[in-house]
Each structure stands twice: as structure tokens, then as C-alpha cells.
Amino acid sequence: SFLVPQIRDSALPHYQTRATALGQSYMSQILARGFDENSDFDGGLLRCGENSTSCTLPANLGPDSGESIPE
After folding, report:
1. Does residue 20 fall inside a structural domain?
2. Higher pLDDT residue, 21 or 39?
């Protein structure tokens, strides 16, 4: 029938908008966090390892004691 494909596809823009909003919220959380304490948090002009301070060793990455993942 002519209406079946239109009815089926009518919800797609809604799901696409929700998926985009979800992706943007994840990206906002990711970009708001500091993954290396030796990084420059003032606009990212210097990356770790480019100045006298080296990057955090991989074994030391992760949550510090007392930190938890926000929900």
C-alpha cells in the first residue's frame, strides 16, 4: 500500500534527532573532562610532552582515589 512506507518512515526524523542529542551529550561529557593532569587546560595551546612537563604515564591514568564516574 502507499501509506505503509510513509507511516514506517515517519518516526525516523524523531529517532535521528534523539540519537544526535545523545551523541552530543556524550561528546560534551568527554570533552569536559581532563584525561591527563599534565595537559594545558587553558585552551589547549600546549599538549603534554611539548613543554618541560611530560605526559602522565599510562599506568597512572584512570580515576584518582576517591573519584567516581558521574551518572
Report:
1. yes
2. 21
DSSP string, 14-64: HHHHHHHHHHHHHHHHHHHS-S-TTS--SSSSS-TTSSSSPPPPGGG-SPP
**Closest C-alpha among 65, 59, 31, 57 to residue 48:** 57
Which pTM was predicted?
A: 0.51
Give, in degrees to the nearest 5, the angle at Cα 10 between 5 and 15.
Answer: 125
> Count of residues for the chain?
71
Supply the range of the domain harboring residue 20.
Answer: 3-58
Q: Are 43 and 62 in contact (CB under 8 A)?
A: no
